[in-house]
Amino acid sequence: MQLKQIIRSAAAVAVLVTSSGQAMAWDQAKAVNDGIKAATAGKDPIPGPRSCFWARGPASADPYINIAYPDAATFYWAAVFTVPEGAKLSIDGQYPHSRYMSLISYDEAGRPIESVADYLIKPKAGSTNPFLTGADRNSRARGYSLKVVDSTPDLTQKTGMNLVGETRDTLHAPKYGKGPGQQTILYRIYAGDRGLDETGGVGLPVPVLTLADGKVLKGADACPALRTRQPLQLDPAAMAVPMEKYQELLKAAAKRGPAAPATNPPAWYQQLDREALYAIYTGEPLQADARRSEGGFYPNLDNQYIRTILNRKLGKVFVVRGKAPTTPRTLAGEAKMGEGDLRYWSFCSNQGFANTRVNDCVQDENIPVGPDGFYTIVVSRAADRPRNAIAQCGIAWLPMADDGDGAGDDDVTVLQLRHMLGTGNFKHAVQNVGKPGDEAKDMGEYYPRGRYLSTSAFETAVPCQIEKR
Fold it and tell me: What is the pTM of this model?
């Protein structure tokens, strides 16, 4: 692709910027000191709401718990528990004011078992599910209840696609590990309406446990019986690639070139199983039956991902351009749920697989699109950021961390594209990509194409002409 086609000006805006357009810095030392002060004052040292059931989280970008590649526009909570023999568990909640919500079960390796996304969950009698197309997003009656059972779901269930017309009232969360077994579910909220708290204005869902003798325990009363403070029984690789394994992968990549596995132009890889992730570095052939969305770190089954590895040895500024899928608009609290090609999409700049920290993300509704339907995003260190890579000039910017992958290579960044709940009519979603290597062919104009540049080259190629008033 011609350079001018890649860096042609489009409209996009970066998230987490100050009024001056500078990235908000994360000061780890200050965060620790703030945590000490908060704990001394009898408050939680980590920001965000929690409960005895949703005790782990919220995960998101800094200053929240930043692990397992969270999208910066989302909040995740984890519940780890064991339903007693003969008891029944349900989760009662209110649909949040947000773009998306789900409850997803996982095994001990952090692999997803089943997702029950918002639109699938049956509302309580008299309530409205605001995530259905055309529904009242601001309905006051927005309650639901979802059963959680210790069994395996139908393995033929489709994932990542919008299953229009289907409903579910059960989440399968089979036990794993030693003793009485452990169960894990994650609660996610994407893109809450502006001005609301992390829960989308409705608080966290509540566990309702009915014991074998018929006694009902709700909320905090249910936590002791569910053993919500039990130690984790997790594979060490569930939340990040172990450091020794990551160093092994880096050595394998180094044999293929000084910047490997990064290439110019970049190669994009589907997220399949964990072996496919390792193959990005080793170059090993992929298994024909590799399953999608299993190789990440507590991945979301309603998303499909492609990712590429960036390396500053190839250039200090990376520019990516592609056609933007359509999605519903919700951030301003729109009255009705809209529709589009996807429910949600975003680009995230991340550290390496041994770190799994997100640097920042830009999400669909915060990426204005040019008249040609295309976006342009710049990725660089703050020190290398082009002066015209700002919202006022119609360009989104994502940061590279100064310490790169956070595990020894200061030049490396992982860039990831999420597509959520593609519809059957949208053939260019990541969900519809065939075999590995078909990404560009199957995604067409929606495939992200990029090149490395210098700061000055970008400033020259994309003039910023702001009209005076």
Answer: 0.90
